[in-house]
Fold:
Amino acid sequence: MALKNTREANYPEWYQNVVAAADMAENSASPGCMVIKAWGYGIWENIRNIFDEQFRETGHDNCYFPLFIPLSFFQKEADHVEGFAKEMAVVTHSRLGKADGKLVPQSPLDEPLVVRPTSETIIADSFAKWIKSYRDLPVLVNQWANVVRWEMRPRLFLRTREFLWQEGHTAHATAAEAEAETKQMLEVYRDVAENALALPVLVGRKPEHEKFPGAVDTYCIEAMMQDGKALQAGTSHFLGQNFAKSAGISFVNNEGKTEFAYTTSWGVSTRLIGGVIMTHADDEGMVVPPRIAPYQVILVPVIKNEADREAVTNYIEQIKNQIKSLTPFGEKIRIKIDNRNKSSVDKFWDWTRKGAPIICEIGMRDVEGGKVMVKERLKLGTPEGKQIMSAEQFAEDVADRLEAVQKEMFNRAKTRLENNIRTDIVTHEAFEKYFANANRFLKEGDSNAVAFVRGKWSGDPNSEELLKALKITIRCIPFDQSGTKGECLLTGAKDAEIDVIYARTY
Structure:
């Protein structure tokens, strides 16, 4: 029951097929936008809840700010508006009327409103009202919202014109406090990516030409997909006093002097779901890490004779009651009994393509023997992936089984990442030759597949054009710099000192 296209044959089409087969999302009648269906939205809800708990633990409160932002707010911060100008959707009229029998915009607005691409400017306006004294600092807020960026080449979850995200915004009395906040939230992102999404990441700082518009520094987590491309999984920005100065966020310090606050912003989005798909899915469909699966255990009744229905149903309810109080990962287990009017075979493959971690098929023979047929999605097609065990044994070890699946998914992805970061390319010539190849699915032992290169960079300001020519980017400047010198892989300059990660990207 494999998908129409395999990862190796056509990776982009395979990705779309996974999303469709798992019934996670679909393209909307609104161009460039998506409908997130129940299974995909359930994954997002779990990601959101895990993040939200960590945000609260680090002292942040949730707020909500307007979707519409006056154009003049962006014009105050020149670098910011330049960075987003090509992606902005703008509201220019307030109502519709009829002309020649057709609906047409009427009542032009006195000032155009930008549909939120990000909220630094509108939140800075609120901060300027809230902050008067050093006693008002720090301000630590987060919002869960939708944003609009007018993507020209939409792809479900990865790039759509409207998407869901969180954006944290904070204001501080000193640069040191703001920088500490920026790095603290980057660590939250790393922790959730690795421990909840089973998504191993590289952590570092963006080069100057890749920074968030208007930021002093941008920090990031970068993940490797199964085709060797990089996915930016989260960013955290130290904004310095740039937005504070343009919005007038000032305060009287403890010496009675007025100064501008230091601000930060940080965010992740539904793009993370795309990252989970491209990290874990296989040629049978989606594979969801148990911590973020909408349902972790699926109980499928196998009814061959109508006379057996009541006995099988009651037995399944007993099993559900035995395990419903379990708390894998410290959270209540999520269970689904699939009573749809479909064959048990069809149900099994539906949940297989969705990537539900554990699927149990239970029929009359199991009832009579006190057994459960347990199938693990991660080990589909292997002897370990299909086991018959007693109901008591299943109830005893299902929580540990889910935690083991989570750990194995992370370890598999981490091994792929570590095995596909090239550090042996040390000359510009070898570097160009390596990236002349096309990306493809990273099969084990395929030394010709293109993935990441860790090597030297001179910091040349002309790098952006050279990178475009090679169709690659500098993903990050890792925090763990080697301190050695070598040839800049991009320009060939000698005695380059900066270690960077080069890769193709989504």
Q: What stands out?
A: Residues 341 and 347 are 9 Å apart (CA to CA). The first strand starts at residue 25 and ends at 27. The chain has 14 helices and 23 strands. The mean pLDDT is 96.
